[in-house]
């Protein structure tokens, strides 16, 4: 194996959560650099998502696409990442210009990679340029060596007795069985062919004695990594993990962690029971409240859904004897796994495999295809991970194509085989074709946004109908925005979650605002004003978690009993208080929650500016499909006619209710569209945007972001700015 580049270095110690160094790898030039960050960088951009945003804002332009050499792939934890005494500290962010959205996307991911990278002396890893051959990057903090090597071309099974490339790679690197001091990020074959390739974060689980994985699933991060020619990055450090952040106040860290762990251990068993059931527990809730995506979000529940409730997975597949945290010290431990599942379909049929999952999102991506088969869900989970494909984008794109068949936009000869709801053989075939870039999988691998154009072309050619007319129909049920597929919640009856998706800067992914539960299940946002305020407040808190390297679940999914005594229980402020304590104890600061929210708002504005630069920052880009706000077609209205009739009567009165269902359907959609537009007006005002959704100059100025580059961009969008005054600040 050829070593292409090797750098010896002195690993930088961590102090108060930071090393203040970035590992910068230019793959075109074949250069490895150890860059020092000035102190003001962390003060302004915090870490994680903030670092990715600032670096991409500086280093890329409006013309940068996912495969441009200057595109960056940034992986960064944050100052609070890597502390086993506090729950959920293994998270990091992968940020880049996305192949799906053509603007900034970030995806958060667990595992041991970011903690080990920090122990190797780096707060972030940046990959830029394009390698001329497939390589791997190895960062060995113990030896003080960083190497770029030609990617090993071994046969995983024959050479290393491993089923997957990633597993074989870790065995090869460790000269046998890996251990907890080594971790890797890898992509798969699907990243070569699909725009929604993922990055798997691999780590060794000594209890299960196998490699486990977590995924940076959204937006095509794996596709970018593979396009750059990087197959994997491996990190190693044997330094002690406890107290590794060298906090300013060790006792304060211990106390904050103990407080949160106590809430988790007492409250979770009374609430969602994530520690016992994992996130599949949500399938039952979502089905009960008409939120579970069924047949491309046409329906929110299904009589067969109980076949894929959490108890089924628990009894048939999940191994309960281990606490399943994705990083040390997380007592919420929601990352469930199954051992020895025999695959029944696909190229690996007959093999026994370990499976990490399923998460709720994966199970719901399968019900979205009208499939209620737990074995298929397990296999879909394994194959998507192994191919390196996002389970959400894959399921939503397949569902969209199935609905195109249902509504006559696609014919069997277009696909090559019947593509029907609930058909596990067809769904499996489409998955394998997508991963390999074969047959109709080439269309599926483009994601919903681009698949709409292909379907419109095919249908126009066959029928002679105007293409624009066809596309307008497809827009109504193609579940994507800004180019990203919706995640797995039906938003028809939750205006708050419509905004949660619509205003999400990366596209419709719930990690910016998961309001569906508090709005539709707990009914804690009854008024329009409360929904609008929540759409400003929750994304700020959630962005902060992505900047500091923390998992949000112990905050948002476990309600501190003390929250009931507060004015707004859904905000769970008593637990949030522990997080602020942990932050201050680590950094030696005296920040308040408001300071944290201000730091976060700066990052959101920076992301908004990147969107503006890439043509995804206006009101137009925040529009959601009809299917996201109500029944897009009559069959959906019919399925809940009594409910929708009642909803209309409450708004227009009995006398004004139209006689025909077609008219009632049209009226309902008009009212829902108007409500969404009103929501845009109010939320834009709350966020300091213009009516068109652009940040006002004074909003940028208040957060220190109104520099010459920002001014020029705003001016190019028609905003007039007092230039001298702005630049003198
Ligand atoms: S709550 Fe779940 S996802 Fe979050 S850190 Fe713990 S195990 Fe990982």
Layout of helices and strands:
Blueprint: E1 3-8, E2 21-26, E3 31-36, H1 39-45, H2 48-59, E4 73-76, E5 92-97, E6 104-109, H3 113-119, E7 124-128, E8 135-140, E9 145-150, H4 156-160, H5 165-174, E10 182-186, H6 190-193, E11 199-205, E12 210-216, H7 221-227, E13 230-236, H8 250-267, H9 274-277, H10 281-288, H11 310-316, E14 337-342, E15 352-356, H12 360-367, H13 374-387, H14 391-406, H15 412-415, H16 424-436, H17 441-444, H18 447-463, H19 467-477, E16 480-481, E17 484-485, H20 495-502, H21 516-521, H22 528-548, H23 553-556, H24 573-587, H25 593-613, H26 626-629, H27 634-639, H28 641-652, H29 661-687, H30 697-702, H31 708-716, H32 723-728
Parallel strand pairs: 2-7, 8-13
Antiparallel strand pairs: 1-9, 2-3, 4-5, 4-7, 5-6, 8-9, 10-11, 10-13, 11-12, 14-15, 16-17
Helix pairs in contact: 1-2, 2-22, 2-25, 8-24, 12-14, 13-16, 14-18, 18-19, 20-22, 22-25, 22-29, 28-29
Bound molecules: iron/sulfur cluster.
Describe this structure in words.
The radius of gyration is 25 Å and the shape is globular. The protein starts with a strand and ends with a helix. It folds into three domains: 3-236, Aldehyde Ferredoxin Oxidoreductase,  A, domain 1 (4-Layer Sandwich); 272-485, Aldehyde Ferredoxin Oxidoreductase Protein, subunit A, domain 2 (Orthogonal Bundle), CATH 1.10.569; 495-558 and 590-623 and 690-695, Orthogonal Bundle (Aldehyde Ferredoxin Oxidoreductase Protein, subunit A, domain 3). Helix 28 crosses helix 29. The mean pLDDT is 96. It is built from 32 helices and 17 strands. Helix content is 44%, strand content 13%. With 729 residues, it is of the alpha+beta class. The strands form four sheets. Strands 1-9-8-13-10-11-12 form a seven-stranded mixed β-sheet. Strands 3-2-7-4-5-6 form a six-stranded mixed β-sheet, sandwiched between helices. The protein has a two-stranded antiparallel ribbon with strand order 14-15. Iron/sulfur cluster (SF4) binds next to helix 23.
């Amino acid at each position: 194996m050829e070593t292409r580049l090797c750098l010896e270095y002195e690993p930088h110690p961590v102090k108060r959560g930071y090393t203040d160094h970035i590992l910068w790898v230019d793959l075109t030039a074949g250069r490895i650099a150890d860059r020092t960050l000035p102190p003001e960088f962390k003060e302004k951009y915090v870490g994680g998502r903030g670092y990715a945003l600032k670096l991409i804002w500086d280093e890329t332009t409006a013309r940068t696409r996912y495969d441009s050499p200057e595109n960056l792939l940034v992986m960064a934890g944050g100052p609070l990442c890597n502390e086993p005494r506090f729950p959920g500290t293994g998270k990091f962010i992968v940020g880049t210009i996305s192949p799906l959205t053509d603007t900034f996307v970030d995806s958060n991911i667990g595992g041991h990679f970011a903690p080990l990278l920090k122990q190797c002396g780096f707060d972030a890893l940046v990959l830029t340029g394009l390698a001329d051959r497939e390589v791997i990057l190895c960062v060995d903090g113990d030896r003080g060596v960083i190497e770029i090597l030609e990617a090993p071309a071994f046969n995983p099974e024959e050479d290393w007795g491993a089923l997957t490339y990633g597993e074989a790679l870790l065995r090869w690197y460790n000269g046998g069985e890996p251990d907890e001091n080594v971790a890797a990020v890898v992509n798969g074959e699907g990243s070569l062919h699909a725009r929604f390739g993922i990055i798997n974060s691999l780590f060794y689980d000594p209890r299960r004695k196998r490699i486990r994985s977590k995924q940076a699933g959204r937006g095509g991060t794996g596709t970018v990594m593979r396009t750059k020619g990087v197959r994997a990055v491996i990190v190693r450090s044997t330094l002690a993990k406890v107290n590794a952040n060298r906090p300013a106040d060790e006792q304060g860290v211990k106390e904050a962690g103990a407080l949160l762990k106590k809430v988790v251990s007492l409250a979770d068993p009374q609430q969602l029971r994530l520690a016992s059931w994992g996130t599949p527990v949500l399938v039952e809730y979502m089905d009960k409240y008409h939120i579970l995506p069924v047949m491309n979000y046409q329906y929110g529940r299904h009589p067969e859904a109980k076949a894929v409730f959490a108890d089924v997975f628990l009894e048939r597949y999940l191994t309960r004897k281990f606490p399943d945290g994705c990083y040390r010290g997380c007592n919420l431990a929601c990352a469930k796994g199954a051992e020895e599942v025999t695959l029944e379909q696909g190229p690996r049929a007959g093999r026994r495999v370990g499976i990490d999952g399923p998460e709720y999102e994966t199970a719901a991506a399968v019900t979205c295809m009208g499939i209620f088969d737990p074995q298929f869900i397990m296999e879909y989970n394994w194959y998507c991970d192994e191919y390196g494909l996002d389970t959400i984008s894959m399921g939503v794109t397949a569902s969209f194509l199935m609905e195109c068949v249902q509504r006559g936009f696609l014919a069997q000869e277009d696909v090559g085989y019947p593509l029907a709801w609930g058909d596990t053989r067809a769904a499996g075939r489409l998955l394998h074709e997508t991963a390999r870039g074969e047959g109709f999988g080439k269309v599926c691998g483009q994601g919903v946004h681009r698949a709409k154009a292909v379907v419109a072309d095919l249908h126009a050619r066959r029928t002679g109908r105007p293409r624009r007319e066809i596309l307008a129909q497809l827009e109504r049920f193609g579940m994507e925005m800004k180019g990203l597929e919706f995640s797995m919640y039906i938003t028809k009856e939750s205006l708050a979650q419509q905004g949660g998706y619509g205003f999400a800067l990366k596209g419709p992914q719930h990690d910016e605002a998961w309001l569906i539960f508090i709005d539709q299940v707990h009914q804690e946002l009854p008024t329009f004003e409360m929904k609008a305020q929540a759409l400003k407040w929750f994304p700020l808190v959630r962005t902060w978690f992505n900047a500091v390297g923390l998992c949000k679940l112990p905050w948002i999914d476990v309600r501190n009993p003390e929250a009931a005594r507060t004015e707004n229980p859904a905000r769970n402020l008593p637990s949030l208080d522990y997080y602020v304590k942990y932050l201050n104890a680590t950094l030696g600061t005296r920040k308040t929650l408001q300071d944290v929210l201000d730091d976060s708002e700066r990052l959101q504005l920076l992301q908004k500016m990147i969107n503006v630069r890439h043509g995804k920052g206006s009101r137009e880009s925040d529009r959601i499909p009809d299917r996201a706000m109500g029944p897009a077609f009559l069959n959906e209205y019919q399925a809940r006619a009594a409910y929708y009739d009642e909803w209309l009567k409450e708004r227009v009165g009995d006398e004004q209710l139209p006689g025909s269902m077609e008219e009632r359907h049209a009226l309902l959609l008009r009212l829902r569209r108007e409500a969404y537009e009103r929501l845009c007006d109010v939320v834009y005002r709350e966020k300091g945007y213009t009516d068109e959704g652009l940040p006002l100059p004074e909003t940028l100025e208040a957060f220190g972001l109104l520099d010459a580059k920002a001014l020029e961009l705003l001016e190019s969008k028609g905003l007039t700015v007092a230039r001298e005054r702005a630049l003198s600040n």
